[in-house]
Design goal:
The chain is an alpha+beta fold. The protein contains six helices and nine strands. A seven-stranded antiparallel β-sheet has the order 3-4-5-6-7-8-9. It has a two-stranded antiparallel sheet with strand order 1-2. This is Chalcone isomerase family protein.
Length: about 190
């Protein structure tokens, strides 16, 4: 093969690969660039890692949406399913997980009016909490006001509560997010 043919082949390979989305890794967890959920291909919007006490990697999460966007408002307004997939990087007790959920929920509700129905959905999720070990997973599938929470691939909570679903996403992507780094990661702004 001549140098010109070799160069042309390398250039073509580079051009074809340049447009392809790449799986991304955070906290040692590699998230694929697309997933199939609710009969639709969802694209990786962003990934974030939650760190506790500045030294303990708690969990890594990926947000999948029909069309990636980089603001909370755009993602919240986008129709169609959304998937928040989380892998735990460290073991956590029931109380530790509940405290994390409560912290985010209370922060969100301090700035927004959370209804009694939303509180019932939140309490249902709190009741489903179980201790986790490193490598365990949680997925939150959100579609048309419905929430399906699965732990290690097993559904533990289903709820139809559009207000709660909107608030949950807003609490992770907006000002109530556990940390700015986590929020920016899920929004693909890092």
């Amino acid at each position: 093969m001549t140098f010109n043919k070799l160069f042309a082949a390398l250039a073509l390979t580079a051009m074809l690969g340049a447009g392809a989305a790449q799986a991304r890794t955070v906290g040692g967890v590699t998230f694929p660039d697309t997933v199939q959920q609710a009969g639709q291909t969802l694209e990786l919007n962003g990934i974030g890692k939650r760190v506790f006490a500045l030294i303990v990697d708690g969990y890594a999460s990926a947000l999948y949406v029909p069309k990636p966007a980089h603001t909370a408002e755009a993602i919240l307004a986008e129709p169609g399913p959304k998937l928040l997939y989380t892998q735990f990087l460290h073991a956590a007790s029931v109380n530790q997980i509940r405290n994390e959920y409560k912290s985010v929920y209370n922060s969100y509700c301090s700035n927004h009016a959370c209804s009694a129905a939303s509180k019932q959905t939140f309490d249902k999720i709190l009741a489903s909490v179980q201790p986790v070990k490193s490598g365990d997973t949680a997925s939150y599938l959100i579609d048309d006001g419905n929430l399906t929470l699965s732990i290690n691939g097993r559904t533990v909570v289903t709820a139809h509560d559009p207000e709660y679903v909107h608030g949950m996403l807003d609490s992770l992507l907006g000002a109530a997010s556990p940390t700015a780094g986590y929020r920016n990661g899920l929004l693909g702004n890092n």
